């Protein structure tokens, strides 16, 4: 840094001045938990290099070797029929719409087989809130999948879907999750979190579950032995205060249950949506994941969102606290309908990791090495 400052002075240039975050840095280096006010100050701090240094320190403390993990999996959107009409979503079709679909069991099996044929092990299966699909439909499907593909991991059904299945099947949350687990569900993806403040949720998805309902679903999932991931979709109408509140609620629940395996942040994709708006910048993404790594001190893993940010930004994020490159996906239908179409083969994922100075290793959903 001193060399850079000297060269700038020689060129008669002025380095930008930023408010000091030295007191926050002292906490991070000492292994102390930062506060909500600290996190908000970091969001207002415009020097990405400072944030990257702190996030990378935390990442290296949790993962001191050069390993960056990824998983070979496939995303299966089994239905796009959904009555909720979230204003940020361009994927759904209302019940009765000619563009609505429910994949047949044969179609789902074919997609799984294609994944297995290239060494894949995880199915990320999510869809709309379809009023025709009650818990028996999911139980029958999960049992059939596990009978035909006993080694495949079912990472399926976001809290929004589970809450809806519970409601239309007239069950408790614990009954719903226990039955789904018995049928073959292995873990719960963190989709549908958006921003965990009701101010934001009431505006962008007024008919969807509340922040507390989402958190309670995850709490019960962990109680019955289903681990999960946690997500944040930022950049719609949320403020930096909303993002900090979101992170605090996740950190509090992780303190309580320890059931979250990873955190993933991605930016709102506005193209073709009712909500509209602009796409968040790469700067905002880097800042957000760095702060998440610093603040979420009880989360072991942070996953890159190259599907929404692009593979090169995903690669750069490895220096901003990220230690996992996520899934090969193979197929994506939700954010791609909003103008986001990044796909990356296995060989390219490994090359991106290696070029950034890390060692790629395959994992399973439990973040255990499988290579």
What does this protein structure show overall?
There is one protein chain. The chain is an alpha/beta fold and 371 residues long. It has a single domain (60-362), classed as TIM Barrel (Alpha-Beta Barrel). 44% of the residues lie in helices and 13% in strands. It contains 15 helices and ten strands. The chain has a four-stranded parallel β-sheet with strand order 5-6-7-8, with helices on one face. The chain has a three-stranded parallel β-sheet with strand order 9-1-10, covered by helices on one side. The protein has a three-stranded parallel β-sheet with strand order 2-3-4, covered by helices on one side. β6, α11 and β7 form a beta-alpha-beta unit. α3 packs antiparallel against α12 (282-295). The longest helix is centred in the last third of the chain and has 18 residues, at 240-257. It starts with a helix and ends in a 9-residue tail after the last strand. Mean pLDDT is 89; it is low at 1-6 and 332-342.
- The total strand number stands at 10
CATH domain class name? Alpha Beta
User: Quick one: overall form?
Assistant: globular
Mean pLDDT reading? 89
State the end-to-end distance.
Answer: 39 Å
Strand share of the residues? 5-15%
What value does the Rg take, in angstroms? 21 Å
Count of distinct structural domains: 1
The biggest sheet, with number of strands, parallel, antiparallel or mixed sense and barrel status, is: 4 strands, parallel
The tally of helices reads: 15
The residue fraction in helices comes out at: 40-55%
Q: What would you call the structural class?
A: alpha/beta
Task: Enter the CATH topology name.
Answer: TIM Barrel
CATH architecture classification? Alpha-Beta Barrel
The CATH homologous superfamily is termed Aldolase class I
Extract low-pLDDT stretches.
Answer: 1-6, 332-342
The largest beta-sheet arranges its strands as: 5-6-7-8
- Which H/E pattern describes the elements? HHHHEEHEHEHHEHHEHEHEHHEHE
Function: Radical SAM enzyme that catalyzes the cyclization of dehypoxanthine futalosine (DHFL) into cyclic dehypoxanthine futalosine (CDHFL), a step in the biosynthesis of menaquinone (MK, vitamin K2).
Pathway: Quinol/quinone metabolism; menaquinone biosynthesis
Organism: Capsulimonas corticalis
Pfam family, one: CofH_C
